[in-house]
């Protein structure tokens, strides 16, 4: 659902409308000059969630970056210690406990009274730098399909993050039955993004042996000579941050999870890149109730499980509503009524879609709202 950019709007109480659609003029309704409140029913909707999972060759290594030959070219769970096997156990379950994907589907569905729509993209594709593949388009009751797909995949390839996020954008924007649903990307990666064939590589921004080079024999030598596979090994920060920003501009929030030793050095360029992506995606890690400038950092399977649970909690605490009719073109004040509770809304607690037929409440307001239906009271 594409959201309005609300930062340019002006709060009510200062003689200006809380919300004014482009091209409209504010004013009173009715012949007496009195405004009349408009009440619109909102129906809570479960979100769309697209998992974007890095299955690059380094996922066959252990979380501490030591090698695990057992995982190379191996799909499915075998009790190995490599990152891919641990991810599968957490995401798809271990045969005894249900995995994160199933749990998220159940939790979000119970909260909204309808199934959440989940999907899966894995990257790279069949070749080292192939763009990610939509394994499952977002759909209701999709957890079993996602788990089956994950179990059939072996680690391989590079990390074409920016191009794959564009695939996620297109898939979510094309998703069926999405009116009123919030949309999220959960990006899970174990390395810095690369594989950008258009990266303007030089010895200054992609030299072999520096943090700017994240793929061996695919960068630039100190004398300016390109390696054979350059620029595919260059740290692709700008394009990756821009891809997340593009998702955000299209109403899609992105959670960024980094798994493994590549992110142990908090001062590294890889960390800097994922931090910027997390901020651009609108969903940086929350520590003790306070937003940070950080992505979700997981150095072990236990950390990864905790990060996934934190993401689940964050998504569950959001409220997306489909409105029975479009909200007024101009809004000077707004409230939400849930049972006997009425809450005044501000620019910081509501996001209205561009067609004014969907509205999302902030975490703090969502926690005070119960039930599948609420009433929104708009004062023109």
Secondary structure blueprint with pairings:
Blueprint: E1 19-20, E2 38-45, E3 48-54, H1 83-92, H2 100-112, E4 117-123, E5 133-140, H3 143-151, H4 161-173, E6 183-189, H5 237-249, E7 252-259, H6 269-280, E8 286-287, E9 290-291, E10 296-298, H7 301-316, E11 319-323, E12 330-331, E13 333-338, E14 341-345, E15 350-352, E16 358-361, H8 363-366, E17 373-379
Radius of gyration using CA atoms only:
23 Å
Taken in chain order, the helices and strands follow as EEEHHEEHHEHEHEEEHEEEEEEHE
Tell me the number of helical segments per DSSP (H or I, 4 or more residues long).
8
Low-confidence segments, ≥5 residues, pLDDT <50?
A: 1-15, 23-32
User: Structural class, from helix and strand content?
Assistant: alpha+beta
User: What is the helix content?
Assistant: 10-25%
The average pLDDT is: 88
Largest sheet: 7 strands, antiparallel
Strand tally, please?
17
Instruction: Give me the side-by-side strand order of the main sheet.
Output: 14-13-17-2-11-16-15
Form type: globular
Distance between the termini: 23 Å
Provide structural commentary:
This protein is globular. Strand 6, helix 5 and strand 7 form a beta-alpha-beta unit. With 380 residues, it is an alpha+beta fold. It is built from eight helices and 17 strands. The two termini are 23 Å apart. 24% of the residues lie in helices and 23% in strands. Strands 14-13-17-2-11-16-15 form a seven-stranded antiparallel beta sheet. The protein has a six-stranded mixed beta sheet with strand order 5-4-3-6-7-10, sandwiched between helices. The N terminus is likely disordered.
